[in-house]
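Example record

The entry below shows one chain as it appears in the dataset: sequence first, then structure tokens.
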Amino acid sequence: MFNDRFLTTFVALMLLAALPLAAQTAQGPAKTTDAATSAVTNAAGAPLKLDLKTLLADSTLARPEFQFLRARRRALARHAGGPADFGRVADELAARQAWYPALELLWFAEKFSQTPKARQALAERMKKMKDADAALDGEVDSAVQMWDAGRRDQALDVLRGILRQHPYGEKAHFQLAVLTHDALVDREEAKKPVDPEQRIQAFRTCYGEFLATIAIDPLYEEAYYQLDKLRTILADQHAFLVATNPLSRRGMIVRLQLKPPLDKLDSGDRAPETLLAASEGFEAAGNLDYAVYATQAALSQSGEKGKLTSNLRKRLERLRKVLK
């Protein structure tokens, strides 16, 4: 399930995020070959004052398609349900071509299931959704090839067109952000001047698209890395670095706490302890809906009695209270 697109420089960024803020300020941002780390100043050469509240606002919150997605996930988390309920909501999402959110609900449903027959049926449904999503991925790949061939404006127009028709295309959101950031870096490497407002606009665009990627697919690992990498665009702005430290911490949680149990689950491990570890990772990363789903799945595998079952029930009750 986890998108395996890890880049080696993630380690360096994680180490920076782990430093106390005072140490980060003393050392400055992590050294990088990206020219986007150059100072951001206004025309008079003074440090640029940023409206951080506006800059870091989550633009997906006001968009109807994301409101629908959050509402369906949240309703499923608030009420006790089994594989059939997950399958029903997955079908609702698939009807809107939200293939990956639907697929992930079926993935959780498969963890509930007790028989090989039920698991096989869910696996077949997941394959169909993967195939449907793959067709859209092919369109995105074609746009990236245009970019690589030097047809950059056309590539960005194609990606925007895909998103107008398929707002839940997580890969299109992701690539639109990556290519926008690449264009900024390329200009810096070519020593072409970049106006401070252009930097800010590039950050806003990339930030919004990466947030959209994660809103659609919370398991899109590289989107967390790229969000952290975006901090280099305004790396000389201390208040900005402080405000965006959670981006680094969240990336570390996803990589170091959440991914290991998910990898075990993908390899066939169905132990309630592994599902509980996944739930704890989801909660630490701020995804309470998925934390509930994983706890429910752990309960379905833990039996009727025992200390673990009792603890899981208490955990589920606590998480649902937070959701209300």
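Notes for this example: The chain has two domains: 58-74+82-226, 244-324. The first helix runs from residue 10 to 18.
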